[in-house]
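task queued by scheduler; priority normal; single chain, no ligands, no partner chains; default sampling; output format set to structure tokens
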Amino acid sequence: MQKGRLFNVAAAVGVLGCMAGLLLFPAPCALAARGGLAVCAQTLVPSLFPFLVLATVFIRTGLASYLGRPFEGLMRRLFWLPGSCAGVLLLGITAGYPVGAKAVTDMYRQGHCTAAQAKRMLCFCSNAGPAFVVSVAGAALFGRVEAGFWLLACQTAASFLCGAGLGLWARRHEHSPLRGRAACRRIEWKNAAPAMADAALAMVRVCGFAVFFAVFLALMEQTGLPAALTALAEKLGLFPHVAEGLEKGFWEVTAGLTALAQGNTSHPLALATAGLLLAWSGVSVHCQVLAYLGEAGLSARQYLLGKCACALLTGILAYLTGRFLAPVPHAPVFSLISGAPVWAAALHVSLLETAGLGMAGALFVKKSGKKTPSTCFSGADGV
């Protein structure tokens, strides 16, 4: 009870402090809001919105359950999950957060997985997408596309290791993965249009959180806390930009990467810090995911613990393997990539991913195009 009261008091003080900061520092807050909107237009919307649409249509129409049947055995052996979750895993790796988390909660709300399975998937199916990692974290911030692909490989490996570890744990504590409603053979294309509308609303939510946390970080700058942490790190002989990147990246990943890129990016510690921040994703993304968890009635505790584990593992992998990369030259933040702005590179990668997913889906439909009943059955198939 005492802890709950202290939390409520601290939260109230924080909210009132932010409101006072908006009145005391209107110009920096307005500038930060405009910067947040620019990030949304140049980076988030081009790299994320196509996958929000695809993910929502993929789940709502029943494509996930229809295409997941061939992966039943593989998903069960690796992650102790039904085959219908294979599409969600693919989206979690390629689409970027919070698309994976939204896909997981949609699967659970439609009855294609249990609450325990959804909680486990949330730990490793909400990752930074290749468009963001390669174009922004790699090319624009570190000056090399190779660094982005390296970070992407470390993040993917950490996610698979966390998922496999949770699968081993689930073998002892959960029943056998059942197909349940995942055995649906009919694709409900009539749900495509409402799914697209829902994706547009989800994109607005993402941009809203991005703008708010841009303003929040601007308020923190006015308090002098980031500068004090940087000075303290310098006195302790640490990398000041790493400390500033961690402090800002805890709240918002793009701000953390931007601060990190201002320092020496050739050290393996910089690459490790970037990997940790990408896997952690920031409180901004967590708030978006928590909104979906609240709507689905799922607890956030296991999700947050899983994100901490994936972040630490990604950072360790990036540090241990980063020394194999040649020194990464410093590049201006949000520089041009082959003469094109960052948003164009992000859009290019997103379109390639979208085309790849579409071709893969068509291939699976062709391979599984046997005549089947057009009704859904909710049988529970055992192992």
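post-processing summary
- Residues 143 and 331 are 5 Å apart (CA to CA).
- The two ends are 45 Å apart (CA to CA).
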